[in-house]
Amino acid sequence: MLSAFQIFKMLMGVVVFIFVIIFFFRVSNMYVGVEERADDFEILRGFDRSVRQTFTSGNPGTFVNFRFLDSLYYDPPRLKSRNQKTLTVTTFLIASTFESNLIKECEEYEWFSFCWVYAYPQNFTLIFTPLDGDGRKDLIKDIVEVMPGDIRFAHCNDTDLLRGDRNAFLAFVDNGMDDITYTPCTVSIPDGYRLVTITTDESIEPRRNEIVLNPQTGAYIEYLSGLPELVNAPSPIRTGSYEDARDVYFLLTTGKSALDYKNEMFLNDLTIAAKIMEERMKLVKRKMLDLNVQQCVECPTPFPKECGYTNALGDEFTSDLYDAMAGPSGSLRQLNDVISANDDYLTALARTAADYKELIAGGCE
Amino acid sequence: MKGQTSIAAIVIAVILVIFLMIFLFATTISQQIGSDYRDEYRNLYVTNMLLSLLNTDTECEKFSDMVKDRYFGGAICTEEEIVYKLGSHINDTLKATGNTNYRWLLEVEPKFQGSFITQWGDSSVTDEDGYWDARTFLSSGPYRLEVKLYIIAD
Amino acid sequence: MKGQVEIMEYMVFVLLTMFIIAFVLFMIFGFQFLSLGGEQAGEIESRSLFILQSLLSSKTLNSPQYQKGSVLDDAVLTVMTCDDIVDMFGERVYVEVRTFLEKPDCDDPGLSSLERSRCESRIGKLISMENIQCTSEKYPECFVWRYQGCEKQDEMVFRSVPVNVLRKMNSTVAMGVITIGIRGSET
Hints:
The complex is a heterotrimer.
Chain A: H1 4-57, E1 61-63, E2 72-75, E3 78-81, E4 86-88, E5 92-94, E6 100-108, E7 113-121, E8 125-130, H2 136-146, E9 152-157, E10 160-164, H3 166-175, E11 193-198, E12 210-214, E13 219-223, E14 237-241, H4 245-254, H5 256-291, H6 312-325, H7 335-340, H8 344-361
Parallel strand pairs in A: 5-7, 8-9, 8-11, 11-12
Antiparallel strand pairs in A: 1-6, 2-3, 3-4, 6-7, 9-10, 12-13, 13-14
Helix pairs in contact in A: 2-3, 2-4, 4-5, 5-6, 6-8
Chain B: H1 2-55, H2 63-72, H3 79-96, E1 102-110, E2 118-121, E3 132-140, E4 143-153
Antiparallel strand pairs in B: 1-2, 1-4, 3-4
Chain C: H1 2-57, E1 71-73, H2 74-79, H3 82-89, E2 94-99, H4 113-129, E3 144-146, E4 156-167, E5 172-183
């Protein structure tokens, strides 16, 4: 006959046992989710760290841990993993999953520079099929010139695919390409490869990892490239127009949304820098006149107030800056106005770089 | 009674050991993660301290010129002025960044034969562990001088 | 009495067993939780370093003449605003730059006591001048740059590094310090 205490001990044992099982079960469930999220989190954070290091040091790097993620979706500037872990990184443009090389690139304008980190696939190969269109050879050469150094190139004619490094390929474009009558490439294009079909035929639709360029109109049709797993993506075919080989470089490797994002970032940074520079030039000029400070350009004696830093050289810079950024009212334009206007601002921007270089050479800066 | 006391003692001891282990475990983790960035920040701090110092103009001349003049002639400042100005600039900077009670040493080592090492500041800094240091080079024609800055908390 | 002791022993045993199981689970799973917390602390460090290095290497903020290290242009610092900082970094970063005036050596043994007290009072004046905040009106007779709207807040993490400031009006390079403060709660 069991005593009351023995019954109590048995009941207590069962209760503790149930408690431990439930606790263990619940914690391990939480753990499974946490571990997955923590892994995604760690991989994305690791990528963020690599990008920041490349950006601040300027030294090239690599990142190979994306292969541990099931999927990755790039919606600039956000990178999303399957478990909805999101990373917003504003200083990079990504081209690939898996093993990536990271390099820092800059567009320089003497007083302003726009830099970003570009992640492109290791063992990336660019394949060309020039079907028709005047200027296709020049377009190919321009594109090859702007690509990062270690990318390989190939040409494809139907099922024929021949690869080579940059120099061998350029030599082939100059000497061998004219002898071939190309038909559309039918080889399957895996990730890590991009096919560029150059043609004036607007009915040709790209397959996955392919872009079709029209060298006469500057139009392109792309099959949304970048990352293999697209979650909730709209139609993968996108159209638009490109200005030059640099635009094509972005389209090829990152897609239209990344190109748009890069242009947006560029104009955003440029607007801030131009506004600051304009204010700064005005302040310096005013104070130099007030304080009778003479710098750089040699002035005759007696010293007229218009001389030195306040001469035409400084004014030229400011006036070109206005051309680059200003609207009819004379005040610096808003970002949208600049984008929607024609691209004369790039020419004016180049002029500001030349002006500023002269200011430096003259000892004014 | 004695049995009860010994069990209670064992239980308390086990619980205390477990808490101690949790505490040590937690502090080790947080230290590990913070330390990479702390090192990077310290390197940035002391490297910038050295480069900025050398680039600074004073009433007699730029610090980098003071260093070069020591080896190649043409010194404008006296030895006392140099030491005072170095100390004043370094201490102002340390104070403004919340680092008081630091000692410093600026050492110049020529990378060519037949010359001498210059030390300004407290030469005992490098005898101890835990100093922060940075180095850079100054050149005059084909001749190079390695300039090193050491700082250590008191 | 013996029964009470037995119950007490049993309770203690159950409590201890549960405690040990919880501890074991904590050691196995706690690493993940602590790492995440540690990661967040690491993230603040990483972000503050990145913002500092971006400011130090910004072509707009720096004078073009100096290749090694950063030399911030004092006129650019004067015209910059908190809105510019927010546009650059997407958050209200506390930014402060200050420079130092050269102070005379009052410990020179060659000085008389009158000269020494004059020297010390001059140092006092220089130190109070060093706190003059820059505006377009006060420029260039000012030595501290702060930005209205991007103020210091208690819960911020601060980082400071030495820097040079180019005093454009007299073309001299001064020694200074840049301090930034960021909030921990940003992504």
